[in-house]
Structures are given as structure tokens and as C-alpha cells.
Fold this protein.
Amino acid sequence: MPFVSHRRGIVSILISAVCLLSGLGLGAQVEPPARSASTQGAAAHPHFLRSFDVSHFQKGNVHTHTTLSDGGSSPEQTIAWYRSHGYQFLALTDHNIQSNPARYASLQEPGFVLISGEEITMTGNGRQVHVNALCTHTRIPGGAFGSAAAALSTAISQVRAQGGVAIVNHPNFDWGLSAADVTDARDAALLEIASGHPYVHSAGDATHPSHESLWDIALSSGADFMGVGVDDEHHIDVSSDPPATPGRAWIATFGELTDPAPICAALALGDLYASTGIDLQRVSVRDQRYEVEPVPAQAQAQAIVVFIGAGGRELARLEAGDGPAVYRARGDEGYVRARVELPDGRRAWTPAVRVSN
């Protein structure tokens, strides 16, 4: 089934920002030589239900803690670190404390901005349930709920009521969320699939799916999430315990502008890729083609582009090289997304796009 996206409602609130996106330089590009997955036996007219062609990205982190809650560095120190390390935007998301970017106006500059955020911190039947609220206007309280589903539903609905963007945070923290809980939280725009925090079990275990697998389970059930990478930063100092230090995972939104409104619009639409250390040069989806191109240095470092369909099924595994890796839709995939892999364990993930005949 095609995405029936509540995000369009969110973005209508940001319509002026969306209009700005028309100037982001996302037009079609001349195609370089490409390696393509075989499409023998393809359906007659399969096509992707969404199109984009992006070669400009804005790097950001949307899960960050400071001394205002359980972080070890001040807001000013934390902002300074991200600003000086090549990020274009940042959200401070302290527990049940909404950050107001205006408080830190002197620390922002052209090319680096803050967006509002907080981590809504709850329990569901005694287990930890956390939702990040981005691009909201006022604080949203946490609390104790009878179930994880009730906690998620309450938080996400309040984020949406403010025209904000909700992230379902680290489902495996405290093993708090089941696959059904994550799938039922489909009114959120984003789902954490990679975290720099060492205690949230992103990889799962013998009895719990990884965060990436939970993403596929939700997508296969019709949910409309984009997976995100986050630092969940708590300490700038690398000797800190826990060692939840910055620079481990991030997102890169589509486009060139760094004003908060278009960044929030991109987050609401899932127009981004997530990474734990891989930079992409271009991501393009149009008609029957899904193209992913890492930056040359990482392509030459034996990067592999894995195209994945419904149920987490591997559709193709292509070596990166000169030009993009290309997957051509057959019509039976349900959706297609890509994971870029390097031998040293670094990864990047691109949006899941539905396929139709």
C-alpha cells in the first residue's frame, strides 16, 4: 500500500518553509556510469511512489543532553562542540525541559542553527518510554502510564498538536518497546535506528530485534517512519561514564538552507539520511530508479550499497565505485531503502520509498 502520510498535515503548518525548498538545488543531474541490480522478470510498469534527487545535505544531531538534565556539559559547551565540528543544526533535548533556541542566539551563526527540542520522559507499565519532541513551542510533560502504547500515543499526539516532529527514541532501552508498540506509534515521523549511547541495545540481542529490524517490521505493517541516527550525547569528555560522547551518529537533511523552518519541514517528511560515519554524495529516486552514491573516498574504501525491501529482505548488494549504485524497481518489493556499509562497521541509511506497478 502507498504511504498515507500524516506528515503532509504537519508540513502544511510549515508551508512557507516548504516553499523555500524549491530553491534547494534538488533538480535532476546528469547520470554518471552506474552499477545496476538485475531486473530480469520485472513487472511491466513498476515505479516508485515518491521522487527526489538530492546532492546537498545539512548535518545535524537531534538527541542531545546537557547539565540542564543528566548531561555532563553545559548547553553552551555542547552547542560549541557541534558548531565547531561541522554540524549545521542541533536540538538540545534534555529530559522534560524544552529548549528555546532564542536563549542561545549569540551561539548561532549563518550555517549553524538550533531547533527546539525536549525528551519527553515517561514510563509504560514500569518500563522506560521516551519520545523526542522537535520543532515544538512549549514543554510537554512526561509521566507514568499503564502501558508503553499509552505513553507513546499521549506524547506523540501532543507533539503533533503543536505542529512538531516526534521521534520514537531507542526502543530497546530498558527493553521498553515491543515491535507492536513501535508499529502502533506510526503517527511519529521518525524512529531511532542507530544511537551513540552504549546502553540502549541498538543491535538487539538473541531475543529482541535490532532497531533497524524494528524499522522494517513497522514499515512492512504500513507505518511511515524514517530511521534516524543520533548521538544521545551526555558528555563531551571522552573519559566520562557512561561514554555517550558526541559525533557517533547523525542525520543529514535534504537541501542547502539552514533556517529552522525548512529543517523542521524536512524532518517531518523524513527527507534525510542517517549515518554512523558514512557521508553520501547523492541520493535519487525517480520513476523506476533508486540511486545511492557515497562520497568518493568512502566508495574507494570498499563501500557496499545494500538495497532492502519489505520484511527486511535483501534485494541487491552492489559495490560502490565511480557513479551511483542503482536499483531498478520490479514491482514486488513493497518498499525499497538502502543501507551503505563499510568494512569497519560504519553505516548509512536512506529513506524507504514504496513501489507500485
User: Anything to note?
Assistant: Residues 148-161 form the longest helix (14 residues).
